[in-house]
Design goal:
Strand content: 5-15%
Radius of gyration: 21 Å
Distance between the termini: 29 Å
Structural class: alpha/beta
Number of helices: 13
Strand order of the largest sheet: 2-9-8-7-6-3-4-5
Order of helices and strands: HEHHEHEHEEHEHEHEEHHHEEHEEEH
Bound molecules: 4'-deoxy-4'-aminopyridoxal-5'-phosphate
Mean pLDDT: 95
Length: 405
């Protein structure tokens, strides 16, 4: 949302860093439209993939009439029922952890906010991927960071470019923000070699690595890679941010961070100054969902659906945009990143596309400097395959309309 340019109120200097989110604003923009729109904009799980009936069923016990204490305050670090269920859920994964490393948060966004609150002072340099999830870079800006954009290719953040850019600036980033797996927005996954190089560089510089991975459990092709958390082998420099938003439902607003145990008292103090505790009924609901053994079957189904949807989107792109654009080929997650030729303007295309009944997020929304005007992000996860074909066809109609003036 665009803030007012002047105000008589004594605003804090940091409000100049509150840049808002084009992605989040698209929720209300689209809600205000009355015509039929194929929605490739928000990174939401498919409506029909949200296990609403199971959640209602397990919720009836967990937060229903028998559970009055579910409406009380919770422990700041998280409700024991959820922490235990989460530890069990992570056992055997590359995110396996211990209770003293876990803090339950209000979604992944609060994890990012806590990370920046603990590590970013005004003027600190924060390296971000380019393109990046701008709610993440926006969080760093809200703490008055300076940003360094580091290019991403199909193998993830270009760690060599990170070193070179830092040398050119003569400054080392205090924090490196990465989405290593099925990156938002590009879909790229950082290779094992780059993961190791990144940790090596962070160690050399004494930087913190914010490892934001909401999509890693949604792999539908290829082999899983060790997480940065696992590769760091107990080194305190990795701050892992995770969420149930993509694997269960975003409206729950429940996530977690995994950090060195020495940080937990600070995290608790920071969270107590924010929201006291994460919404207890929702923590109990997620715990009941996990304890009921529902997650694995749900993930199996989701992975299969998302693979079909990605393939449907790629097939439709080949049909309507072959020779006009190129796109990525993610092995999981929600997004395809589509790049047109350099003269193309996906922001100018947006209102035309909306009129034609299709929505996406323009590429420049994923770069604090406004790079990628010729690209756009498509979320394949939220839309069934036949509607995906329809949406991509509408996009082609919009492109032709724009080109025809
Ligand atoms: N990080 C990334 C990379 C994301 O894509 C998202 C959600 N779009 C988040 C963090 C925020 O997650 P949550 O909705 O749980 O706050």
């Amino acid at each position: 949302m665009t803030p007012p340019t002047t105000t008589a109120l004594p605003l804090a200097a940091r409000t100049s860093g509150l840049v808002g989110s084009v992605i989040d604003s698209s929720t209300s923009l689209l809600a205000s439209q009355t015509h039929d729109i194929v929605r490739f904009a928000m990174g939401s799980p498919a409506r029909e993939a949200i296990p609403a009936e199971i959640l209602a069923e397990v919720g009836a016990d967990a937060i229903g009439a028998q559970a009055h204490d579910a409406f009380d305050y919770a422990a700041t670090e998280g409700d024991p029922a959820l922490r235990d269920a989460l530890l069990e859920m992570l056992e055997g994964t590359t995110d396996a952890t211990t209770p003293d490393r876990l803090t339950i948060t209000s979604g992944g966004m609060q994890g990012l906010d806590l990370a920046c609150k603990l590590f970013v002072d005004p003027g600190d340099l924060v390296a971000v991927e380019s393109p990046t999830y701008t709610n993440g870079s926006g969080t760093a800006l809200s703490y008055q960071a300076e940003l360094l954009e580091v290019p991403v290719d199909r193998d993830g953040m270009q760690v060599v470019a990170l070193r070179e850019e830092a040398q050119r600036l003569g400054r080392r980033p205090k924090v490196i923000y990465t989405i290593p797996t099925f990156q938002n927005p590009s879909g790229a996954t950082m290779t094992l070699e780059r993961r190791r190089e990144l940790l090596e560089l962070a160690r050399e510089w004494g930087s913190m690595v914010i490892d934001d991975d909401p999509y890693g459990m949604l792999r539908f092709a290829g082999e899983p890679l060790p997480s940065l958390h696992e590769l760091a082998a107990g080194d305190p420099l990795v701050f892992s941010v995770r969420t149930f938003s993509k694997i269960v439902a975003p409206g729950l607003r429940v996530g977690w961070v995994d950090t060195d145990p020495s940080l937990q008292p600070l995290l608790v103090n920071a969270k107590q100054a924010m929201d006291t505790c994460t919404n207890l009924p929702m923590q109990r609901l997620v715990a009941a969902f996990l304890c009921g053994g529902h997650l694995e079957a749900h993930l199996v189904e989701q992975r299969q659906q998302y693979r079909l949807r990605k393939e449907a989107m790629q097939a439709a792109l080949t049909e309507h945009f072959g020779g006009l654009a190129r796109w990525t080929d993610p092995e999981g997650g929600f997004f395809l990143w589509v790049t047109f030729d350099p003269a193309f303007d996906t922001q100018a295309l947006f209102p035309v596309a909306l009129e034609e009944g299709v929505a996406y997020i323009p590429g420049n929304a994923f770069s604090p400097e406004g790079r990628f005007p010729d690209a756009l992000r498509l979320c394949f996860a939220s839309t069934p395959p036949d509607r995906i074909a329809e949406g991509v066809q509408r996009l082609r109609v919009a492109v032709d309309r724009l080109a025809g003036g």
